[in-house]
Design a protein that fits this description.
heterodimer, A: about 190 residues, alpha/beta, 6-stranded mixed β-sheet, 6 helices, about 30% helix, globular, B: about 250 residues, mainly alpha, 10 helices
């Protein structure tokens, strides 16, 4: 179990997490659902070690041991699709490139630059890069924004097949429906509903 | 309007017009010692270009300017990183670099004349002019770097070298290109100026100085024309090389 215990975090005067606790299953797909601005992204950032809480602790997941998909694609305009994948793979795993291109359904786009990709393609590339990086868990912030529902469903199944816990924040009904656990949240400060 | 006519208007008419103005002014002055006409100057330039000394002087000046460009750019780049990442370095080096930027080139030429051998003055001066420009361009590039990409590099466990190669250098490339183009113009002009004031044995500046002392105005114009032509040519080549590097 990945466990957040009594987490408090604020941005300036705004309290986003106030003694918040949550247990997340250590396998399968877990969705965090809630209105925009309720604190889902902050929660994911705390899990990923990208935001340091004032109080409380995360158990079951060390800092820098998870792969994080940011809400924005954060692609590098000067790197090709293929390079985005190989950039996160160690030399010994470079041969996996075609596997991750297939994961993102971007076969044939290996040499394309981000400027030539549609919004959905860019999102799939960002997701594939995150999955290729790997780790003890995947923390995904709106992974299927701009991705058509059929592709999103197929990619969710591929994510499940990776065998690592996946925690994702999403607004999309079909995505939530395909997850094993859905945790409904509201805030700020963040709380379960 | 056809493209041939457009090209004629853009590229052929302006030089013909200005050469005409120059010739009319030369006729009006009527003293070749004060203002030789374009045909006289063109003839002198062709005659000079036929001598080995012309090309050796051009080569020597180019060598000094590029040496200055190289050390100024390397040191300016290193200082930009240093002052960006270390507040103590910023506190120490930034005011000094701003002083260098604000100091007139002539003051530097005369000061450097006291401290270094005469042959070294042009490349020392060129480098001193390049350093603050490259430092300023890279500093502003570093300040405008996308923090989200740097966060991505940390989150995706990129090594320092990988972060430098994949994020810093590509992000800084447009700033470096603009800085180098400006710096090249400064290095070229200040290097030749230093050669005029402290002439080495073989240099464009030394030939200009000789022409001035010998009241050979046509030669003075011819060397100046050569400087302008070389500057435009080299700047164009540098621009193309930098653009090609950016596309690669």
């Amino acid at each position: 179990m990945i466990s957040l215990q009594n987490i408090t975090l604020r941005y300036g005067e705004k309290v986003v997490l106030d003694g918040f606790s949550l247990d997340i299953p250590e396998e399968g797909l877990t969705a965090l659902s809630g209105p925009s601005g309720c604190g889902k992204t902050t929660l994911l950032r705390v899990l990923g070690g990208l935001a340091r809480p004032e109080r409380g602790k995360v158990e079951g997941l060390g800092p820098a041991r998870a792969a994080f998909l940011f809400q924005e694609d954060r692609l590098l305009p000067w790197r090709t699709v293929g390079q985005h994948i190989t950039d996160v793979l160690p030399r010994s795993r470079r041969a996996e490139l075609s596997r991750w291109l297939a994961f993102a359904e971007l076969e044939g786009e290996e040499h394309a630059y981000p400027a030539a990709l549609s919004g959905g393609m860019a999102r799939r590339l960002a997701l594939a890069r995150c999955a290729a990086l790997g780790g003890d868990a995947l923390l995904l912030d709106e992974p299927f924004a701009g991705v058509d529902p059929q592709r999103a469903a197929r990619m969710l199944e591929r994510l499940r097949g990776l065998g690592v816990p996946v925690v994702l924040a999403s607004h999309q009904g079909p995505v939530l429906a395909a997850c094993d656990v859905v945790i409904r949240l509201d805030g700020p400060p963040l709380h379960r509903v | 309007m056809g493209s041939t006519r457009k090209n004629l208007l853009k590229y052929a008419i302006p030089p013909v017009f200005w050469l005409g103005v120059w010739q009319i002014a030369a006729w009006a002055v009527g003293q070749p010692l004060l203002l030789p006409g374009p045909l006289t100057v063109g003839g002198r330039l062709l005659a000079l270009a036929g001598t080995a000394d012309f090309w050796l002087s051009v080569g020597a000046t180019l060598g000094r300017v590029f040496l200055g460009l190289l050390w100024g750019a390397l040191l300016g780049g290193a200082l930009a990183f240093l002052t960006h990442f270390f507040p103590w370095a910023d506190a120490v080096a930034s005011p000094a670099i701003r002083v260098v930027r604000a100091t007139p080139v002539v003051s530097f030429i005369l000061l450097v004349y006291l401290w270094t051998p005469r042959t070294a003055i042009p490349w020392v001066i060129s480098g001193l002019m390049v350093l603050p420009v490259v430092w300023g361009a890279l500093s502003s590039g570093l300040n405008s770097l996308d923090g989200k990409l740097l966060e991505l590099a940390r989150a995706y466990r990129f090594s320092r070298w990988k972060t430098l190669a994949l994020i810093y250098l590509p992000s800084l490339r447009p700033h470096l290109s603009a800085g180098l183009l400006t710096a090249f113009g400064l290095a070229w002009k200040s290097g030749v100026a230093a050669e005029v004031l402290c002439p080495p044995d073989r240099a464009i500046g030394a030939r200009i100085q000789q022409a001035k002392l010998g009241l050979e105005t046509a030669d003075l114009f011819a060397w100046t024309l050569a400087i302008v032509a070389l500057s435009l040519l080299l700047e164009g080549l540098l621009r193309r090389a930098l653009e090609r590097g950016q596309k690669a």
